[in-house]
Design a protein that fits this description.
Immunoglobulin-like, 5-stranded antiparallel β-sheet
Length: 442
């Protein structure tokens, strides 16, 4: 269709021609602006070096950020319930009365069984003690006696006279006898006990149980009475009840098995005790303390670098929210400080673990518990783009700018010139374009 002899194709060509002329005029005008001439000279060698240094600084920062989030993830993973090697999976056996028995070792397989231990008698070693004699008095006779069992024994011979012809004291005689016994292969330990100037020879079998009895016979001298038994050798007698079934046991040792794989009990005295599997609360407390430290460190890092990029603020907000209610944190021994950091009380955790272990474990390591939440928050933080951490500007060509890319594009005269030249009157209102160009020119 023609209007006044000019077709629509010609009209569009006229608009394109006018756009080109306008672009050329704007280029000439911008070239005479001293501010923009100074800006355009920023492509000098010093500017390139500066831009490179800024990029390197941002790379170092992103690496430091990743390290902080990784540390937090690792600390949280140590308490996750799904982590079989974590603190919550490190099950130990505890005793309800450690005066009766203590437990040692770790469970090789998970078990929910409790074992009731009833100790009727603990294993004992035989002990013989001689009559007391005045330690400083001279010995009246020598010693020639035998100590041991059918397999191993020692013949003790001690003269009452010194090599120079002088007399030995009772204490000297007893010490020489004990020395000979201890250097022998006899399964007996000898010691000299002195109190208030009175000395005696004490003999004790090295192992507990009735099979380790020994005998003493001969000329005892200053060790008279050591042939008499003061404490009889005895085996441990105890019973274990589990799932309603009671089993009687006898052992020459006080270190016994109670049914748990990889765990032993040490019998200490007569009475009853319940042995049950539970987490090692000391390890849980240590791991939770490490998690709180890692959280505080990450929070401080984000706060110190808050103005680097929008992603830092988002990650900081993520860490500060959704940790759990005040009551839940208190159950774990954790409190929130005024600056958002956390404080941890090991004694409070230990108390709550003893009072309500199931609830405390779930709050820390259960699905959706504190460890899960912080692990996921740190993981999401690692997946955040590096650009959002530094707000890298593709228009200006430099990294580390704190504004967004769109803001930089709208305030860069060369970007506006290119945008107008490409779009011209078709996609950009003339009054906007003219206004922006005048702002640069004036």
């Amino acid at each position: 269709m023609a209007i006044g002899g000019i077709g629509s194709y010609g009209l569009n060509s006229l608009y394109g021609y006018q756009s080109t002329i306008n672009s050329l005029r704007l280029t000439q005008a911008l070239s005479r602006n001293p501010k923009l001439n100074q800006s355009s000279s920023s492509t000098s060698a010093s500017s390139v070096v500066s831009q490179k240094a800024a990029k390197n600084a941002n790379v170092a920062f992103v690496n430091e950020y990743a390290s902080s989030m990784t540390d937090l993830m690792q600390a949280a993973n140590a308490l996750k319930g799904s982590n079989k090697g974590g603190a919550m999976s490190d099950l130990a056996v505890t005793s309800s009365d450690e005066k009766v028995a203590t437990a040692s070792g770790k469970l090789l397989i998970k078990s929910d069984k409790d074992f009731k231990l009833d100790v009727a008698q603990i294993a004992q070693a035989q002990m013989n003690v001689s009559e007391g004699v005045k330690a400083s008095a001279y010995a009246q006779s020598g010693m020639n006696f035998t100590v041991g069992d059918d397999k191993n024994s020692v013949n003790v011979q001690v003269s009452a006279v010194k090599a120079n012809g002088g007399s030995k004291t009772n204490a000297q005689m007893l010490r020489e006898a004990a020395d000979q016994i201890n250097k022998s292969k006899a399964n007996v330990t000898a010691s000299v006990v002195e109190k208030d100037g009175v000395a005696s020879l004490q003999l004790e079998s090295k192992e507990t149980g009735t099979s380790h009895r020994f005998e003493v016979s001969g000329e005892m001298g200053a060790a008279a009475g050591a042939e008499n038994v003061k404490t009889e050798a005895a085996n441990a007698k105890y019973s274990v009840t589990s799932s309603g079934m009671k089993t009687e046991y006898e052992s020459e040792s006080n270190t016994v098995s109670v049914g748990y794989v990889g765990v032993s009990a040490q019998l200490k005295g007569t009475g009853q005790a319940t042995l049950k599997p539970d987490v090692d609360t000391s390890k849980v407390a240590s791991a939770l303390g490490d998690l709180v430290d890692a959280y505080n460190s990450s929070l401080k890092f984000l706060n110190d670098n808050f103005d680097r990029g929008s992603g830092i603020g988002r990650q900081m907000q993520s860490l500060l929210t959704g940790l759990g209610s005040e009551q839940s944190l208190k159950q774990m021994g954790i409190s929130v400080n005024k600056d958002g950091t956390l404080s941890f009380s090991e004694s409070a955790l230990q108390k709550n673990m003893a009072k309500d272990p199931s609830l405390t474990r779930d709050l820390i390591s259960g699905t959706g518990g504190l460890a899960d939440r912080l692990f996921n928050k740190a993981s999401n933080g690692l997946n955040m783009s590096a650009n959002s951490l530094t707000n890298y500007s593709s228009v200006s060509g430099t990294s580390g700018s704190y504004g967004s890319s769109s803001t930089k594009s709208a305030t860069n005269p060369y970007a506006v010139l290119g945008m107008y030249s490409r779009s011209g009157v078709y996609n950009m209102s003339n009054y906007n374009a003219v206004g922006m160009m005048l702002n640069y020119l004036i």
